[in-house]
Amino acid sequence: MRVVLDAMGGDNAPHVPVMGAVQAVREFGISVILTGDEELLKKELEKFSYPSEKIEIVPASDAVPMDEQPSKALKRKGSSIHVGLELVKRKEADAFVSAGNTGAVMAISLFTVGRLKGVDRPAISAVLPNLRSQTFLLDVGANVDCKPFHLLQFAVMGEAYARYVLGEKNPRVGLLNIGEEEGKGNELTKEAYALFKAAREKGLNFVGNAEGRDIYSGNFDVIVCDGFVGNVALKLSESLAGILAKILREEIERHFISRLGAVTLKPAIRTFKKRIDYAEWGGAPLLGVRAPVIISHGSSNAKAIKNAIKVAAQFAKSHLNEHIEENIQKYGKLNGC
Amino acid sequence: MRVVLDAMGGDNAPHVPVMGAVQAVREFGISVILTGDEELLKKELEKFSYPSEKIEIVPASDAVPMDEQPSKALKRKGSSIHVGLELVKRKEADAFVSAGNTGAVMAISLFTVGRLKGVDRPAISAVLPNLRSQTFLLDVGANVDCKPFHLLQFAVMGEAYARYVLGEKNPRVGLLNIGEEEGKGNELTKEAYALFKAAREKGLNFVGNAEGRDIYSGNFDVIVCDGFVGNVALKLSESLAGILAKILREEIERHFISRLGAVTLKPAIRTFKKRIDYAEWGGAPLLGVRAPVIISHGSSNAKAIKNAIKVAAQFAKSHLNEHIEENIQKYGKLNGC
Question: Membrane-crossing residues (chains A, B) (predicted)?
């Protein structure tokens, strides 16, 4: 198993990606190919000890800035993203990981490896912790104006990911909506509901509409929405978690620390952060392209990169993309053509 | 100032609304008219002592169930909602409060008092606490498929509410979107951005796109979105606040209580809950109809009802609706006709 890591992607590249790669090699024994500035990467690697046969550098002369338009990024054929995805396309590697520019990773994936058969649009996803396990939410930003059949394709892809990579036996799929009952929603979700119901006849475990509260309720394993709504939900969650932790910390300090002096809250806050920390999940798949691609947060630390490499390897081992193509077929003519 | 309260609305009616009314009378000296089942309300009122001239019952023979379709609810001309809004229409009262069926309150408001001049669609709003003060979010569920000019009308109404009722000097208005830059977004928000920019030329303090994280950042006083996105954001927030408090509590107990024995976390948790508790805000206005209408959570406690009555009185005093009609005029031909 060989995972390519875009060593130039992320807010703290290449230091953090290289450290993450070294950790993945040491802990999981996964072979990693780093793409990026050869001199820089060599210097970074010298800081660590690791089994040297497990990390290889494939030079890339260019890098995509974090905020560059995907259309511009596409023109940088020598970028670490482009070089990395070409390796996967040529079967010289099994999966690709980047904490870089999400839009650029998607655009270059489409350009190099292309779409899966029957998938009109790839989706970006998020793995969110809930009280029981995790909720797989998609799309979270790739597709801001969707047709109902796009949502059904997201459902098929998300269901397969939850089953074959996250290990859910029979993932419960929900359609994000503003009420539980059939007939609720906007034009998009009302029409999508009908398609989801038809797919249920053919075996999709569609359990109905999910509401905003269900993203964290644990009542659904996969929740499907358009990329606009998903993006708002994701960014809202990330900020709210931080803000609530801050407020509660202030309150506890106000009531306790003055009285308890030396007693520190650190262990509780640390474990709390770990439970709500999306970095723990490493990254989330870009689904619908002909290669296992994992996109990590731009602010990922080494641990998140390490976990993303592990997830990428699981994705590759699972033969997920074959399952997705089969299911897209199985649930009928789902595309718009 | 006389506020009508739908005493049959909410999960624990009429007990909780009556208690809330008594508290509002005692604390704020506001006169309250209760609409609902006369016998039931008399019995409830007997439980409390209060200045009797300040609470009046206007009988209503019917009540709208919490989950009834608005179209059905409209036919109950004798409902506590209908009777209450008729009182406001006939100027026998100044404002209306209900913790009942939101869709029914909106439909019956449109049927009785009607829309403000220049407003195509009323909006339901939410007052959310942020790290500095509060964010006024609208629409949160009344309008799931919007046109760009609807969003601009929401902006005008929200800005006026933040200014004249919440007391913000120059409310910063944001358009909920998936990126900060102009040009980001779906078809709706891209077109709306152009309208908001044009309104900025005429004086609207439109500061740009807001992202999901900005709902709680304190960088905006008013955030505008369609009712689908707003509803998901609101329900997500409510559930996440509860879940995070629960997780953090577990973690703190795991790390501390075993060691500290009798030390209780109650004061900290209580203050925390108060800061994030939407009930503290009492309720949120239905904007765009020809009367001050406040809608409270179905699960409101007496304190939330009391605060809602206070907010309703402030709304009535502010002459908000006159300001809204002026501003809709000022910011140009904003409706779609």
Answer: none
